[in-house]
């Protein structure tokens, strides 16, 4: 199933995958702050940021084209606001908005693509994120998979009973609208089943990871060094 | 000897008022295997979900002598392992090893012991090679075995299996019979598969409209309710599709 691609990426091995999730979360935070406070006309800084991210993708061994393409998911939103700024005459702001939002998405995908979900959530929790928030994020992520899986089943079932050709388009559209309601009902029922199975195996509100987090010296060095680079790039 | 499961006057109705269980009394002895028969919608699954407190009705449920209550839920869930009908619902962690370790970790084992238990359970079901795989890459039979390993890793005293042969091909069903025969736990098997039940259970009970209406040996219950896949009647071609339309 293609929806598990990020999960597959996060289970590869590379120097970036090996780093403690807390190091990556802290660095992501620093990078996003540095990026957000960069002037939109600071072309060299933005280019260096992009180069850093690209190096990260290569070091992590993630498919660059796939990751960069998926990061474009943000563009419909940022382009909308970019166009509004452009229309208001603030061209640099428009360009900066699109550039920064795209680079931010690449950075987030790079972090998520090099950190397994349990490790990421564990890292967030140990950095002080409220447990309820972490739990909600975990369930949201799992249930997104459930909805996506159900959507694929529904699509296949619908496709098997569709006619081909133009005259069936309207029928297909109507059927798709109905299927959407069924999809959510089925996903809800599936999610309920998963929750029951979790309770039956003693789930009491906390996911315990198999590998407890350990922040090694190498992680500290990695965090300090990269944070230094991000700040140096940002200063001019 | 304390029964593994003791249920008295259990009744339950869903939130919309649909009655699902009506005054059920049931006992499962330690080490005993009982088959639970009944038509679709007769309350079998609702009944087994009462046993570990996932659904709560009126009446009393005791597992290994421990009465079911809010305070005893963790103990009860450690004693009763439930293999659900749909393995996909039971396998929710990213890898097989993480999934099988989920129960032991929740019951307070440290990571090292949980992994050891998970590996042992995977070995018992013949899935040791799949430890690093993602559950969605497994076949239906493999998923079923991993789901069973997930429960076995908790080392429960009772196994409840809801339609365990669903999606399994005949060889996989035979393997499951062999596997279950060698497990010492008391077992409650919800199934429509009478051959599977006959191979494992010494006793059977029959559910009808939320009531436990009969119990006896597996063969008695099958005969009394004509509950077997007898050969289908010959097709009546007078009503076949090509003639009617």
Largest sheet of chain B: 6 strands, mixed
Give the largest interface pair and sizes. Answer: A-B, 26 and 32 residues
Shape of chain A: globular
CATH homologous superfamily classification of chain B: P-loop containing nucleotide triphosphate hydrolases
Q: What would you call the structural class of chain A?
A: mainly alpha
Distance between the termini of chain A: 45 Å
What is the CATH-assigned architecture of chain B?
3-Layer(aba) Sandwich
| Radius of gyration of chain A, in angstroms, nearest whole number | 21 Å
Biggest β-sheet of chain A, characterized?
Answer: none
Query: How are helices and strands ordered from N to C of chain A?
Result: HHHHHHHHHHH
Widest beta sheet: strand line-up of chain B: 6-7-8-3-9-10
Name the average pLDDT of chain B.
Answer: 89
Query: What Rg of chain B is obtained from the alpha carbons, in whole angstroms?
Result: 19 Å
**Order of H and E elements of chain B:** EEEHEEHEHHHHEHEHEEHH
The total strand number of chain B stands at 10
Task: List its traits.
heterodimer, A: 236 residues, mainly alpha, 2 domains, globular, B: 245 residues, alpha/beta, Rossmann fold, 6-stranded mixed beta sheet, 4-stranded antiparallel beta sheet, 10 helices, 36% helix
Question: Quick summary of this structure?
Answer:
The complex is a heterodimer of chains A (236) and B (245). Chain A has 236 residues and is mainly α.
Write a structural description.
- Chain A contains 11 helices and no strands.
- Chain A is an all-alpha fold.
- Chain B is α/β, with parallel strands linked by helices.
- Chain B is built from 10 helices and 10 strands.
- In chain B, the strands form 2 sheets. In chain B, strands 6-7-8-3-9-10 form a 6-stranded mixed β-sheet, sandwiched between helices. Chain B has a 4-stranded antiparallel β-sheet with strand order 2-1-4-5, with helices on one face.
- Chains A and B meet through helix 10 of A and helix 2, helix 4 and helix 5 of B.
